[in-house]
């Protein structure tokens, strides 16, 4: 029988802030680029070291650790009723090139510390608690965002696609995974799929990656929805040639075609009728990349998002039409127009957001509801489990750059809200 937890013992939630800060700093040194930047690419040597770091911390917290075929890592604290669907929490530790040391990381290290906080308070879970480190949230290496959580959510098309996916060095996904030690049963990635209902709740602690909480001096963001992301790959081909000898009327410049499409993306998102529509061309490569050679090929990758899925899809359609007309007008070939992902938004679960809000009240922390404009593994976990996200403020909203910063007091607040919310949901 589960004796009622004395709530005040839960309220004496003490976070080991110093230890947590040390872990954040140590993890940030496992990077392919020099401090203060962090670069940690899926299945790279630094990623493997970082995985070992996380598994070690999970072990020190008394969690039983398992990994699936693509390297999603699970650390479980068995509850008194282990047959019930567990409550889970987690995030990612991979980092895009030259980014910061908090994105994702505080939702993994903070989750492990939340477990420690509950253990230190004498809490006994009814539903087991599980910490998840998703194998790759960023799209950097294979161009696929939330690769690990998409598979956990049962994406059959991704399980197929990964059999023929290579990175920019032509290394296959399977060879890269084998390098990181994930060799067994790679052939059958459906083994990664989780059944709907595998968890009674999934919660992710994350920095806001926006300026609102800091501007409003609010401690906690209770996320109500995650915006709908999409990404597109485009290639143009022209005949190139000598930058001096080929006169302008004779040219079909693949570089200018890419430039014109990039500006068209900006135009379409600005004319969408909402400030919530965004578009970015973060990758634009010219071949051969010589000052005196007319680009014969161009490759651009477009990221466009909106909290309204239909409005976002209108932008995608306009981008496609524009690519076709640019190719026509400039006499360049549109050799690829590939929508890599076009995901719906996700809504948080009311029971989870209510548990978070009461946790904030009990902990005397100010909070506000808000949407997440960044995507997260929660976007896909929402397909198999009720989902919620806890945001903490970050300096000027900076993220995906080395200036990213979150104060340890804010991180500790997030950990306390996470710990108390996990406790409430574990007893539910
Ligand atoms: O791009 C994103 O929204 C995420 O932070 N990777
Ligand atoms: Mn990110
Ligand atoms: Mn993230
Ligand atoms: Mn994210």
TrEMBL record:
Gene Ontology molecular function terms on file: hydrolase activity, acting on carbon-nitrogen (but not peptide) bonds, in linear amidines; metal ion binding; ureidoglycolate hydrolase activity
GO process annotations (BP): allantoin catabolic process; purine nucleobase catabolic process; ureide catabolic process
Domain of life the protein comes from: Eukaryota
Associated pathway: Nitrogen metabolism; (S)-allantoin degradation; glyoxylate from (S)-ureidoglycolate: step 1/1
A single Gene Ontology CC term: endoplasmic reticulum
Compartments where found: Endoplasmic reticulum
E.C. numbers: 3.5.1.116
Pfam families, sorted: Peptidase_M20
Broadest EC class assigned to this enzyme: hydrolase
Main location class: endoplasmic reticulum
Ranges that cross the membrane: none
Catalytic activity: (S)-ureidoglycolate + H2O + 2 H(+) = glyoxylate + 2 NH4(+) + CO2
Alphabetic keyword roster: Endoplasmic reticulum, Hydrolase, Manganese, Metal-binding, Purine metabolism, Signal
Co-factor(s): Co(2+); Ni(2+); Mn(2+)
NCBIfam families: hydantase (TIGR01879)
Record-linked PANTHER family: ALLANTOATE DEIMINASE-RELATED
Subunit structure as annotated in this protein's UniProt entry: Homodimer.
Family (UniProt): Belongs to the peptidase M20 family.
UniProt name for this protein: Ureidoglycolate hydrolase
Organism, scientific name: Olea europaea subsp. europaea
């Amino acid at each position: 029988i589960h004796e009622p937890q004395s709530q005040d013992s839960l309220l004496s939630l003490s976070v080991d802030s110093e230890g947590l800060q040390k872990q954040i700093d140590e993890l940030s040194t496992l990077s392919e680029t020099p401090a203060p930047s962090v670069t940690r690419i899926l299945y790279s040597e630094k990623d493997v070291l970082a995985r070992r770091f996380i598994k070690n911390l999970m072990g020190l917290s008394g969690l039983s650790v398992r990994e699936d075929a693509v390297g999603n890592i699970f650390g479980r604290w068995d509850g008194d009723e282990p047959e019930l669907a567990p409550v889970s929490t987690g995030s990612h530790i991979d980092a895009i090139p030259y980014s910061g040391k908090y994105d994702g990381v505080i939702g993994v290290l903070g989750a492990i510390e939340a477990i420690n906080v509950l253990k230190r308070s004498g809490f006994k879970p009814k539903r087991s608690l599980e910490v998840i480190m998703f194998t790759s949230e960023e799209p950097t290496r294979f161009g696929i965002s939330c690769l690990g959580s998409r598979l956990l959510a049962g994406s059959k098309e991704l399980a197929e696609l990964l059999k023929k996916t290579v990175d920019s060095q032509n290394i296959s996904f399977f060879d890269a995974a084998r390098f990181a030690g994930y060799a067994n049963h790679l052939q059958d990635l459906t083994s990664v799929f989780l059944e709907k209902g595998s968890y009674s709740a999934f919660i992710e602690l994350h920095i806001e990656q926006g300026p609102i909480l800091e501007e409003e001096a609010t401690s906690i963001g209770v996320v109500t929805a995650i915006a709908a992301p999409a990404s597109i790959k485009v290639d143009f081909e022209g005949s190139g040639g000598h930058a001096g000898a080929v006169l302008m009327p004779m040219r079909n410049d693949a570089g200018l075609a890419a430039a014109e499409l990039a500006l068209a993306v900006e135009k379409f998102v600005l004319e969408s009728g909402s400030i919530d529509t965004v578009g970015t061309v973060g990758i634009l490569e010219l071949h051969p990349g010589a000052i005196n050679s007319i680009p014969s090929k161009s490759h651009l990758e477009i990221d466009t998002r909106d909290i309204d899925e239909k409005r976002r899809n209108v932008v995608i359609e306009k981008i496609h039409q524009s690519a076709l007309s640019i190719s026509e007008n400039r006499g360049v070939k549109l050799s690829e127009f590939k929508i890599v992902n076009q995901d719906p938004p996700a809504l948080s679960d009311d029971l989870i957001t209510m548990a978070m809000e009461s946790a904030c009240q009990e902990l005397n922390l100010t909070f506000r509801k808000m949407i997440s404009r960044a995507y997260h593994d929660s976007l896909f976990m929402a397909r198999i489990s009720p989902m919620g996200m806890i945001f903490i403020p970050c300096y000027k909203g900076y993220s995906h750059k080395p200036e990213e910063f979150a104060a340890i007091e804010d991180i500790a607040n997030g950990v306390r809200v996470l710990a108390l919310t996990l406790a409430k949901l574990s007893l539910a």
